[in-house]
Amino acid sequence: MMSVIILLLLSSISVAALFLAGFLWSVKSGQYDDADSPPVRILFDPSSKTADNILDHE
Amino acid sequence: MAVVTQAKCYHCGDNCGHFPIRIQDHSFCCEGCKTVYELLQAHDMGDYYTLANAPGMSQKEEVRKDKFAFLDQASIAQALLQYHDDQETHIVLYLPQIHCSSCLWLLENLHQLHAGIASSRVNFARKEASIIFHHQQISLREVAELLSHIGYEPAISLQQLQGQSKPVIDHTKRYKLGVAGFCFANIMLFSFPEYLGIDSNDEQLRHLFWWMNVALSIPVVFYSASEFYVTAWKNLRHGFLHIDLPIVAAIIVTFARSLYEVFTQTGGGYFDSMSGIVFLMLVGRVLQDKTYQQFNFERDYTAYFPVAVTRLSEGQERAVALPDIHVNDTLRIHHGELIPADGIIMSGNSQIDYSFVTGESMPVLKEAGEIVYAGGKSMGGVVELLVIKPVAQSYLTSLWNKAEMKETPPVQKSFVHLLSKYFTAGVFAIATAAALYWQLHNAAKAWNVFTAVLIVACPCALLLSNTFTNGNILRLLGHHGFYLRNAQVIENLAKSDFIVFDKTGTLTDTRQQQVHFEGDELTYQQKLQLATLAAQSGHPLSRAIVAHLNMPARSTITGFLEIPGEGMLMGRGEEQVAMGARKFIVGDATPSDPNTSVYASIGGHLLGCFRIHNQYRIRIDQCLLQLKKNFRLAVISGDNNGEAYPLQQLLGTGTDIRFRQTPASKLRFIQSLQAKGHQVIMVGDGLNDAGALKQAHTGISVSDHHNNFTPASDAIIAAASLPLLPQLLRLCRANRYIILFAFFISILYNLAGIYFAVTARLSPMIAAILMPCSSISIVAITAGFSNGLARLTLLNKPTDESHTAA
């Protein structure tokens, strides 16, 4: 009983730690610095003529 | 005259006038716009026009050919580069014209325009493009010229050259927030057994959870909460009791008591409440500290000056960096360039536009032998200038070096600080009283009760309501084109009772002039003749008249003669068309007429005169009318009193309107108001307002998108949002009431908590329930109220122009 709980405890905290590491990495790599261009950039396509103008409609 | 629907330029959206240039189905306002269109079509980049309507920049103002010649010099280029090796060069360029998704698309597809560009990436918020290019195929100068050619002229200022680039974004608060969130969530998880009443037989398991919590709380106390210790300690050293101090006390008390409980195995402590508070307060701080990266609130003249100028030595032109200019150098100043240092004109003449420096709305003619001061923009001819003062000592820079400019005004303290003082005193009184009571009845519990009161009644609710409301109001204001330096500015704005406006560039739009003709109505033929003559001159007044007449100017003319500062004429005899000052056309001078007028005659017969007025910004009259209800107003202008009458009409009687004000007298005017006890807001745009903006309790600078420089100030407002100023200020005033209301609600939660605490029944679970409840309701109240108020007061959303201006 005890050992199972400890196992669960360790796994839950390591999963959470992974998320924390992911968050710290995302901050460090500057993903929160510019929130405006990525959502527009993803719509650009070399051949697409349909990407809507997001920024002008906000 | 019949109203003709005029075509809009397919590239930049400007009005094309009666005679647009047409290609295929599209109209263009000028050759420049057409050229960009053709270039993009040739490279199969027509997508640019499908992503947004008329996304381009007006190309009417051509960029001078050698403007970026200075980038060929290794010493200047070196200071701007990020990275450089045998193959490639990395540079970050500030492109203030970036405004829509088409810009983003075009700038990230630069490699299609030139093979030498490896990649380019735009940071929309900062309006910057990071470009990597192969310098064997394209030089830095060519990159800058390519960008200018497609309408994104890089803004390179002296500030960058001196290495004072924009502040690097600080990530530490976000790291702290992440760590606090992680620990808080896990501590909550490990506290659940305690809340639910774990089987007390399982002592070992309980202790395991306790110790896990101790471990998890250590990063919260020693890393995430360090924000609060630093500010509290800094203020304490200066003798201030900062609002963070009671927070620090609460964290320490909670942590110490919780550790004591775990070590003595008497309980699980309050690690969950403590880490939750730290987490939520960090969320509030991160929201409140959201910075506007595209703005720099700390500018000085170095951001306004160009990087390099053309120096003449032994007949050779050479681009030199501004700091290398010395007295007795001869400079060549081209059309549209800034005069970088005080000097004497050696040859040539030019109209010098001082509107940004002195507030004069009309350019003044300067000829050989006259002294010109730094900061003016040369319009028209090319002049050669002998430098008489070094850049650092010129008239313009000396404005900054005055003692007033260096002084930082004392930091105004928020009313929240005062409130927190009373609150803290109250909490300590209650805690002490309760402890004394228990000392008499059950001495063992006295210490517990004392700490429990401090834990449950920490002023974090006050701080939370403060940071969350401020953060939300800042966000709402920013959404409407009003950007504040920090949260304290909201409160300063709310307290203000006096608003001082600058005229040129603030109330008026310097790009536009209102022209009306006084005299008999002109025939089509006469208009055509006048427009043809006016089109020959680059003088700003001539341009305004050309735009006003809106005629197809003939290109072949004979006998054109322009006498600078007086007027111009063409043709002979009955066909002679002349325009100019009254003295030039009529013969007598009327020096008393402060209005700007251009007289016109054909064949020696006087037709009348064009009167040129400042164009006031749209809806500025309503804005002033509304402001008058709550504020006293004044206008101080560096211009002459030609606009006295329209201004008086706009503002009504009893308003102080002053003309011909120097930067120093503007500053003194603000000081005199402050001496009378007024809380003053100064709204200005130019360098001549810089002193006043700094002296005022709140300085707001107006930013047009065609003019990216704003002097140092507490707030920046997009020109298109200026009419919304009354509503925006009302929102700032509401801020205080929202905070107080949220605080009142949190007091109710606190009273409930204190009830449990003084009766010695505060279990960790009750603390853990009260804490998030009070926090969540505060966040809900502040968000709900401020958003609702914003919707009520700002029903009229700003026009489309506002975000281009931003």
UniProtKB/TrEMBL annotation, chain A:
It comes from the Bacteria. This is Cytochrome oxidase maturation protein, cbb3-type.
From TrEMBL, chain B:
One of its GO terms (cellular component) is plasma membrane. The chain crosses the membrane at residues 175-196, 208-226, 238-256, 268-287, 422-440, 446-465, 737-758, 764-785. Residues 8-82 form the Putative metal-binding domain. GO terms for biological process: copper ion homeostasis. GO terms for molecular function: ATP binding; ATP hydrolysis activity; copper ion binding; P-type divalent copper transporter activity. InterPro entries: ATPase-cat-bd (IPR021993), ATPase_P-typ_cyto_dom_N (IPR023299), ATPase_P-typ_P_site (IPR018303), ATPase_P-typ_TM_dom_sf (IPR023298), ATPase_P-typ_transduc_dom_A_sf (IPR008250), ATPase_P-type_domA (IPR059000), HAD-like_sf (IPR036412), HAD_sf (IPR023214). It is found in: Cell membrane. It is a multi-pass membrane protein. Keywords: Cell membrane, Ion transport, Magnesium, Membrane, Metal-binding, Phosphoprotein, Translocase, Transmembrane, Transmembrane helix, Transport. Its main location: membrane. Residues 306-402 form the P-type ATPase A domain. Belongs to the cation transport ATPase (P-type) (TC 3.A.3) family. Type IB subfamily. NCBIfam families: ATPase_P-type. This is Cu+-exporting ATPase. It comes from Chitinophaga costaii.
